[in-house]
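Amino acid chain
________________
===
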Amino acid sequence: MFRKIHVVKPLPDKSLLLWFAGGEIKLYNVKPLMDKFVPFLALQDEQLFRLVKVDAGGYGISWNDDIDLACNELWENGVTVDLVKLQRYQLVEHLSEIRRLTGMSQKILEETSGVKQPVIARLECGDTNPQLETILRILLPLGKTLDIVDLIDIKR
C-alpha cells in the first residue's frame, strides 16, 4: 500500500517533515543516506537540500533527476511526530522561562494580565490546553507576543 505525500518541508539538520494523506506527520533523517549512497552526498549543499519537492501524484519526493525517495521508504523509516503537542510544550516552556527570567512571580503576572494565578500555574505545569486569549494576556505584560514563523525556523 502506498502512503501518498502531500507536503515536504526540509529542516536545517538534514531531516524532512512530511505530511501524508490521512494527516500523519513523519520526520525522516536524510543524513544516513548521505553516508551510505554517493548521490545523496550532494544534499550536503544546503541550497540543493531545500529544493526538495513532492513528485506528481505524491508517490515520492525528489531534489533533482538523480536524487529521489519513494513514499514507502519515507513512511516506513520516518518517525511519527505530533507537531501540535510539541509546539504546545515548547510554547509553555518558553512562556514559563520568560516569566522566571524577568523575575515576575505568578501572582504579579496575575495582577498585570488578569489571568488567575492557579490558571498560570496549571499552564506552566502543562496541565491545561490554554485558549489563545489566555496566552496573549500572559505574554503582553512580559513584553512578548506570538508570531508566525516558517517551520524551518522552529527548534525541536
